[in-house]
Amino acid sequence: MRRRVIPPVLASAAVILLLSGCGTTADGGFAMGGLQADRPRPSASLQVADAAMRRGDAKGAALLYEVALRADPGNIAAARGLAAALERAEEPDAAVAAYRAVLAIEPSDVKALRQLGHLELASGQAKAGADTFGRLLAIDPSDADARDGVAAAKCMAGACEAAVAEYRRLLDQHPEHRKIRNNLGFTLLLAGDTAGAITVLKPFADDPRASPSHRQTLALAYGMAGRFDEAERIGRMDLDQASVDANLAFLKARGAPSADAGPADGRGGAQKAPAPSAGTSADGSVDRKR
């Protein structure tokens, strides 16, 4: 006889009932011992939700954190868990709402503010992101990540020159901060200053701690300046030849000048970078590396 497999969410719910001490209600609606069966305790739901997160079941964990929140709407652990689970489940709109719910319980939750700010920028909410990172700066004016978020929001709103100035100040204060260097370089590309971007990004070529996304921002800068040999050399550090060829073909199709043609705008290139979602690196991924 084939055994029926219980779906993971149903199995998790069954475990909650067991952890809550609930028995069957075959005798007039009363559990064993003559006591009315209790609703699942929030602590039991949290235990099972945490276990679901550890095994990678973010969606199942989100359902379980919601159970805990319904039983105790002010439970900060459940609220934090729900927000993290929804973010991991790649449900950004729901995660934004969940992080805002966390902050309604604990307005100074630094982690929730940081995650919310990144999600807001990634979804194109420049003003909301700037406001959220501003709240972080009110807590700690030296928070480089929050200042980086404010600068990204400025560029999203069309004030890229102000963002460049802010990034330069940040990089002067934190010269080893790779995320700030990467974002300054990419913002310069957005502003059309390919020569300036190359100058800022060039250290990534020899930096063993630079990430592939950092090096590919440099490759993009070389390509947009028409320096295709250098773009290919840097691109091949992390990509196969077919991917490098495709990237170069894309840039050439967009009219990137050849190196022999000379600059067309007096700053090192006529083309502006194709803008990704704000708060992302050149390859489209959120860049939080130093």
From TrEMBL:
<keyword id="KW-0732">Signal</keyword>
<feature type="repeat" description="TPR">
    <location>
        <begin position="110"/>
        <end position="143"/>
    </location>
</feature>
<feature type="signal peptide">
    <location>
        <begin position="1"/>
        <end position="26"/>
    </location>
</feature>
<dbReference type="Pfam" id="PF13432">
    <property type="entry name" value="TPR_16"/>
</dbReference>
<dbReference type="Pfam" id="PF14559">
    <property type="entry name" value="TPR_19"/>
</dbReference>
<dbReference type="InterPro" id="IPR051012">
    <property type="entry name" value="CellSynth/LPSAsmb/PSIAsmb"/>
</dbReference>
<protein>
    <submittedName>
        <fullName>Flp pilus assembly protein TadD</fullName>
    </submittedName>
</protein>
<keyword id="KW-0677">Repeat</keyword>
<keyword id="KW-0802">TPR repeat</keyword>
<dbReference type="InterPro" id="IPR019734">
    <property type="entry name" value="TPR_rpt"/>
</dbReference>
<feature type="region of interest" description="Disordered">
    <location>
        <begin position="256"/>
        <end position="290"/>
    </location>
</feature>
<dbReference type="InterPro" id="IPR011990">
    <property type="entry name" value="TPR-like_helical_dom_sf"/>
</dbReference>
